[in-house]
From TrEMBL:
One of its GO terms (biological process) is cobalamin transport. Its main location: membrane. It is a multi-pass membrane protein. This is TonB dependent receptor family protein. InterPro entries: Beta-barrel_TonB, Beta-barrel_TonB_sf, TonB-dep_rcpt-like, TonB_rcpt_CS. Residues 7-323 form the TonB-dependent receptor-like beta-barrel domain. The keyword Ribonucleoprotein does not apply.
Amino acid sequence: YVGTDLSLEYNKDVYSSELKLAYGQQDNYDHKSGQNKSTGDHVAIEQFNAIWLNSYSVNEELSIGGGLDYRTEKLAKGYIAANSWGPAKDYDPEKSPRTNFGVSAVAQYVYDVWTLEASVRNDDNNQFGNNTTWQTAAGWSFYEGYELTLSHGTAFRAPSFVDLYYPGYEMPNLKPEESENTELSLSGAVSIVDWTVTGYYNQIENMLIWKGSGMQNVGEAEIKGVELEVKFDTDIVSHEFYLDYKDPVDKSGAKDTQLAYRSKRGAKWNAYATFDQWTLGSQYLYQGERFNGSTRLPSYSLWNFTASYAVNQNWDINAKLSNAFDKNYEMYTSYATPGRQYFVSADYRF
């Protein structure tokens, strides 16, 4: 992946605004282990994003916000190698370019021990039409340091360009995913520890999920679970722990089954230390066992490390080491996953 992004921010009194621009090209190669990548399939996706966000504080209790965003993506180039799908061939570089224009609005009202929030978003997609989603939430600070929050809303997810047109795995008739989500959370603080427990229940129609021959829709799915989040500091090190237990169910068949490639258990630990001009970080990720039909994929653990150096108040240089110990694992049956990876980036703020 090669890309660049630009972010501009403006803050004055009760008004703030941010403009984000991003362009990138993602190259995907699909070839057998030990062979040169030129022997397999190749597809490159070009993407451009523009996002404009605004926030305004009407008074001490009420704040409002809104935004516009535009996204376009197209197949920049592609090649399908000779295989069981037929002879080698070039791919149409202008196949179904896609655009999405979004408009969003949000309002938050805070009074005494109550916090109320509502948001709405409309997406106009040249491939999947016009869709509106919404979210509402209410928070109650019933005791000092403790809050109970209830939220309910809808969501819409269009299939990605890769989902639809990846060479050899084309699924151009995929439907967008639609869902209705409810969450209840309790948060508090004990000594140096901040914690949140969240229970959630999601009902999903046409869920997008990988099934070996390409991305497919699951007509009806249900995911319910509980997540624990814990944060605390030890000297200069900040810690974040996440534990998640869920029951992901495919309800589209004659009987309920566990959703393909969805684990019931997960955990994550993030640690960051900042000193002088340096910020060093580590991340541990655990995913429980998953299933694809009767095929069991074992659990796995990964370590990632990051480093950031602030050259001055405007410049940051960043480095990341992913899958640091070159762990072999499977996310999908018979498909290799990236080994150890290195990333370097630079951020400049005007």
